[in-house]
Design a protein that fits this description.
CATH topology of the largest domain: Immunoglobulin-like
Distance between the termini: 46 Å
CATH superfamily of the largest domain: Carboxypeptidase-like, regulatory domain
Number of helices: 1
CATH architecture of the largest domain: Sandwich
Largest sheet: 5 strands, mixed
Order of helices and strands: EEHEEEEEEEEEEEEEEEE
Radius of gyration: 18 Å
């Protein structure tokens, strides 16, 4: 379905709590000659102005709109990291995990965070791949049994109104049918937050701000 009079939702996701959480340094335990001995966790990724990268932002329970794009989600084992760390996928589309490193990785995919194993397939060398179809909605957690610090996520939806914030915590959702919506955000360490009753008008950019107020 083509949306001829849709509007856009633009915004940022920021951390408004205190103190601002920081990524810790972790010591690597395997293939250190290639992977290195230490790196940062990479789960918070909060900028100096408290904007948050890698937040999945989506419309909740939208029933109509444009068609799901025919886009394959590809996650690459690169330099002993999963790239991208956070991605959006759409039900029915292909999902590929590819090893671009000269060391053994495994594609261990869980249904939901720390949930039941869906599959666990060895990727023994550079160029090894595994291809699956995204058959269910919800959160997938990706891991490598050989390198436990390698963590990633794919959030699967049955509609196209979803995206991931960029390095500046910004996002855009396009071609939204006019109406009122709940906009929800998911972050791997901070959890979920949402804004209700967001009004979208045809041909208009609606600007919003999603905030996390988590406190320790």
């Amino acid at each position: 379905m083509e949306i001829k009079n849709g509007g856009n939702i633009e915004g940022v996701v920021e951390f408004a709590g205190s103190p601002v959480p920081q990524d810790k340094a972790i010591t690597l335990s395997s293939d250190v000659k290639y992977c290195g001995k230490e790196r940062h966790e990479g789960k918070y990724l909060i900028t100096g102005d408290n904007r948050i990268k890698n937040v999945v932002v989506f419309l909740e329970a939208i029933k109509a709109g444009k068609a799901i794009p025919n886009e394959t989600v590809t996650v690459i084992d690169s330099k002993c990291e999963l790239t991208p760390r956070v991605a959006v996928g759409f039900k029915g589309n292909k999902f590929i995990i590819e090893n671009d490193d000269p060391v053994l990785h495994s594609a261990h995919v869980y249904a939901y965070a720390k949930g039941k194993t869906m599959y666990n397939i060895a990727l023994p060398e550079r160029g090894s791949t595994v291809t699956k179809t995204l058959t269910k909605t919800g959160l997938l957690e990706l891991n490598c049994d050989c390198h436990p610090w390698m963590i990633g996520y794919v959030y699967v939806l049955d509609h196209p109104y979803a995206t991931v914030t960029n390095e500046n915590g910004k996002f855009t959702i396009t071609d939204v049918p006019p109406g009122r919506y709940t906009v929800e955000a998911w972050h791997e360490a901070l959890g979920t937050t949402k804004i209700t009753d967001v009004n979208v008008e045809g041909g208009v950019v609606t600007k919003i701000k999603l905030q996390y107020n988590w406190k320790k």
